[in-house]
Write a structure and sequence with these properties.
The structure is a homodimer.
Chain A (H helix, E strand, L loop, with lengths): L8 H4 L9 H5 L5 H9 L1 H16 L13 H18 L4 H6 L3 H12 L1 H21 L5 H8 L5 E4 L15 E5 L4 E5 L7 E5 L7 E9 L5 E10 L12 E5 L11 E6 L2 E4 L9 E2 L5 E2 L5 H9 L2 H29 L17 H36 L5 H35 L11 H8 L9 H22 L16 H6 L13 H28 L4 H33 L6 H20 L2 H11 L10
Parallel strand pairs in A: 1-5, 2-5
Antiparallel strand pairs in A: 2-3, 3-9, 4-8, 5-6, 7-8, 10-11
Helix pairs in contact in A: 3-4, 4-7, 5-8, 7-8, 7-11, 8-9, 8-11, 11-12, 11-13, 11-14, 12-13, 12-18, 12-19, 13-14, 13-15, 13-18, 15-17, 15-18, 17-18, 17-19, 18-19
Chain lengths: 624, 624
């Protein structure tokens, strides 16, 4: 039974302890409690408070900031803490269905405490558990209960030493042997060893292993997931034929045991195949509801969107923590002043404000985006679970894939740069381990890499947009998507004719202004990228080369600008809803405008160049 | 007696071991040995080889990459290694005078091995030792010998808990007591504790302590340096009245013991005052060759330039290491390809090239700048040592101060961003501790903060330039400086009239083109900053507010652009010397152009905006 928080608002949102921040807090133009209630809602605040109170009161979660913990000790502690989280049972399955946002909220709370704990829990439940649930069938339901009781502990083994991004080149094999009705899982060589697998290093008993499926006398049916026991749950000793070990120290997240594994002709029962997208009959015939290998592959990796959305929300947590630390420090640290006698808080310096406040705004905008994208994902998964095979469901999957593929890069990079800026903005004190900025930076860093390298992922998003434009040019199709994130593109010729007409700085303080500029920018980048790509192809480049030659200067900024626009759009709509309390409208509007203008300003050179190509003001663009 | 390397060129520059990099190496358009000889010179290569060979053959320096070393063990090892470096006696005092570049070369070699070691050695010799030497007098020479024999071990205690950047607000006091002919060193409270002092945490026996000097019945004479024994060299126990301790774990450089100290009425002999800029007679009268407190203060902190120049060169080392690791990895790691069968090295992707190659060019350009600035510093110090009080010497000091104050920020930020890019460009493998990119990032990070926060320092450089322009506007003075870095500004009105006339991309591949654009940019920024500053003052802002309000949008880019221009200028001249071997001209020219264009491109928005303000092409600038 999960603990709960009793009492009214005072218990839920107690006053801050008195201290040097009082002076700034007293100057706020709004009530922070009202903002917290608007941002999270009372039910969510209560849920988070329950989790934090439990951790605060449990000695196993005692913090020792800046402690010099050995790798082994840290991993042991992290495992025990993960186990304890299951025992607390903060979130029932019914609760998950009723309030799906509590799932990322739980992960975020764990991430606030320690990224390694969030990752360990997430990998076992949402990555390993979800893979078993969504790729398996009835016969695998027995695993689900064992997962939630931590009777077994899992990991997700896709990446190999020599192949991460290029999943199609993965080389572990699974040959079916009809004589014994078993699959033989095998790693041909060390370069095909499963690598970087979180939880595999010390603690996982089971792995979802991706391997190329072969049946006798038939061609390869491509990558399929198998559930493979890799360790004895009692002794944690490796199973016969499995060579499994720990990757050693990493730049961060050292509470998480990343590992490698090689399989030497390991035999597993036929039922180990997670058979939703393809199965093998006892006699050895391959059967699949999907005709096309590519389509099958797409479905089997579809689950990666959920990983990316989780990472996005963990990156936001890191950014939130860092910016809170840096702003609080800046409000109390005094250095220099108008006279030698009077020193002022460093937060008063325009330089410090310019360095930090945009990241505060980014934390709010990205936090809202991460929640809204998670709800979109829930919609997709519900359609998937109910067997929806409509065109809309497929389109929704593609749209979420495109949003998550650029959302993870945007959030992880914003957090990474923000944390570094916070570290530097806190001067020497920011370099002390106990002040946590280093841990945040190191723990956030892999968010830029895993579940898809940021730069590689951005190509998914630009390809999605280019595909839509090609479809329009070729077939006259409209830009339409279930979440409407691309619908504005339908008007791209007229948007490209628009000019920026705002004359005063004050008028720019509405995010609608930046939003209009962003729409123009995305239309412009999309058209330019499309033209550049076609030009590359006309001049004889292969598809592969043409895309690579366009990515740096065109595809990458297109994907980022599109995603920034989506984040700005969603936050703009959110803070301009009629239900926003009047007392919060000003501050939320400012946060929205600040994030939008700051993000847009990074494209300033592009905007100027585009304007220049149009010619002097008054002339029309000749290239459109 | 220092070890030396025997044998000819083959021993000095042996072939690389054969391996997967051979294919790329075979494609080089130049001989790497020739490039190494041109960049370093044979004597320097030999010197570095001597150091590396000694470390390679000494078990005390055995590496355990990615090891999980405890804080205490790491500090102990680092101290022992530092001691061993003194025993090796790589660099005699005569050698230092004959080949001053061997000083930073030694520090760089130690930095290549481990930043903590370089910092520990540097702080003891060049920071503590130089402070005693240059701020003291004959009576302190006895310390110098003990420093080089490591009979005493030193640290430099300026920063306090509450004051780092604002050194004028430092509050430790030194009251002279004529009765006992002693100074009483005292920390009024914990906020005035000396803080962050490298070597102080565990190992220093002596500190140069900066304190406000008071004599009886007289006003305060400002900050002066005192040499104070803080620990017993035999037991390392604190001296009476000294509370000294370790700061604990940091984000990086954990081999270095940063510490804090409070002094409770600690009595030191009158001779402890490092008395070059001011002294107290036995009776208690303050005497100084400098009339003005400000001037005295300037001289006493003049030594900080040398710290900044050292940091600059250590940042370059970190960048060099990171880019070498990332490029080698990129040349061997294969992922995706034109067909499913054929994968290509990730270095072949334009994206990877755009991410990494500019940092390779930056490493070369900044390395050259760091050496040339060190030689300028040597000139300054020789003038100082020979008692040169000419106007040129003073001007040289100011110019080097301006160059070092922007050079440290430029180099430390370039390295920090470059290392992060390298980390990400190596994907998951870059996140493994043994691959060293994390250590490099963490160890480089404080370079952005210590010896002056980067953003605070940049103000020194913009103030220097603004002062020169004010002098010209007010008094008609010419822009002239001993190192000629500002001389071009004399022609600023005509430079501002120039237009960018290059028509082809090929023509831009000469760094002279970017150089001309940079000159225009610096003139433009200087004029704009000057106008903005005056406008702020006219509208009633105090000097303090006016400068702060100009810094983000004007002063900061001015300082950075000026320094980038200086780096580009020096590297351009270096690679276009007649003595450059013909076979190296192409590659060096490309490095120079790449660094220049890449740096300049970050100011693209500013260039477009400036052009726009001039009006459409053909029209003249009305505001000039």
């Amino acid at each position: 039974m999960a603990p709960t928080v009793e009492g009214g608002d005072a218990a839920l949102l107690p006053e801050f302890p008195r201290g040097p921040l009082d002076a700034y807090r007293a100057r706020a133009s709004f009530s922070w409690k009202e903002l917290a209630l608007f941002t999270e809602g009372e039910d969510m605040l209560r849920f988070k408070k329950t989790i934090f109170s439990a951790l605060e009161n449990d000695p196993l979660f005692a913090r020792s900031p800046g402690a010099d913990l050995s790798l082994d000790k840290y991993r042991e502690l992290n495992f025990l803490r993960c186990k304890r989280i299951f025992e607390y049972d903060f979130l029932s399955v019914e609760d998950m269905f009723k309030s799906p946002l509590k799932v990322p909220a739980l992960i975020q709370c764990l991430g606030m405490y320690d990224s390694s704990l969030a990752a360990k829990y997430l990998l076992h439940t949402l990555v390993f558990g979800s893979a078993v649930y969504s790729s398996g069938s009835e016969r695998h339901l027995t695993y689900i209960q064992k997962i939630f009781s931590m009777e077994i502990f899992g990991c997700f083994a896709l990446t190999e030493l020599s192949h991460g991004s290029n999943t199609k080149a993965i080389r572990t094999t699974a040959h079916y042997d009809p004589a014994t009705k078993e699959f033989i899982i095998h790693s041909p060589d060390f370069e095909a060893a499963k690598f970087w697998v979180g939880n595999m290093g010390k603690t996982a008993t089971h792995a979802v292993v991706f391997a190329k499926l072969h049946v006798p006398g038939d061609q390869c049916h491509g990558l399929h997931p198998f559930i493979v026991q890799i360790r004895d749950p009692k002794t944690l000793l490796p199973m016969p034929g499995v060579m499994v070990g720990d990757m050693g120290k990493k730049l961060g997240q050292n509470g998480l045991d990343n590992g490698f594994a090689m399989f030497h002709k390991v035999r597993v029962p036929r039922q180990s195949l997670l058979n939703r997208m393809g199965d093998v009959t006892p006699e050895g015939t391959y059967v699949s509801p999907f005709k096309d290998v590519r389509q099958r592959f797409g479905v089997s990796l579809g689950g990666l969107s959920s990983g990316r959305v989780s990472i996005l929300s963990l990156a936001v947590v890191n950014l939130k923590l860092a910016i809170a630390i840096a702003l609080r420090f800046s409000a109390t640290r005094r250095q220099f002043g108008p006279t030698q006698e009077e020193e002022i808080a460093v937060l008063e310096y325009p330089m410090q404000q310019c360095r930090l406040l945009p990241y505060l705004a980014a934390a709010y905008a990205l936090d809202h985006f991460s929640k809204s994208l998670f709800l979109d994902l829930v919609e997709l998964q519900r359609g998937h679970a109910s067997g929806d095979r409509s065109a809309r469901q497929a389109e929704l999957g593609r749209e979420i894939h495109a949003l998550a593929s650029a959302g993870k890069p945007l959030a992880s990079w914003t957090a990474q740069q923000g944390i570094q800026e916070c570290r530097e903005a806190c001067g020497g004190h920011g370099y002390l381990a106990m002040n946590r900025l280093g841990v945040l930076r190191d723990d956030n860093d892999p968010n830029c890499t895993y579940e898809g390298d940021n730069n590689v992922l951005l190509q998914q998003t630009s390809n999605y947009l280019l595909g839509l434009l090609a479809h329009r040019v070729r077939d006259g199709a409209c830009f339409r998507s279930p979440l409407k994130s691309v619908d504005f593109l339908d008007a791209y010729p007229s948007i490209l004719d628009q000019k920026f007409e705002v004359s005063s700085v004050a008028d720019c303080l509405d995010s609608a202004v930046a939003l209009a500029a962003y729409k123009w920018l995305v239309c412009y980048l999309l058209r330019e990228t499309y033209q550049k790509l076609n030009q590359e192809k006309r001049s004889g480049s292969s598809d592969f080369d043409a895309r690579n030659n366009c990515q740096v200067s065109h595809g990458r900024p297109l994907a980022l600008a599109f995603l920034e626009l989506t984040v700005v759009q969603r936050f703009h709509e959110h803070v301009h809803q009629p239900c926003v309390p009047p007392s919060l409208r000003a501050v939320l509007g400012r946060l929205s405008a600040l994030y939008a203008l700051w993000s847009l300003s990074r494209h300033a050179a592009l905007l100027y160049r585009a304007e220049r190509r149009r010619g002097c003001p008054g002339r029309r663009d000749r290239s459109s």
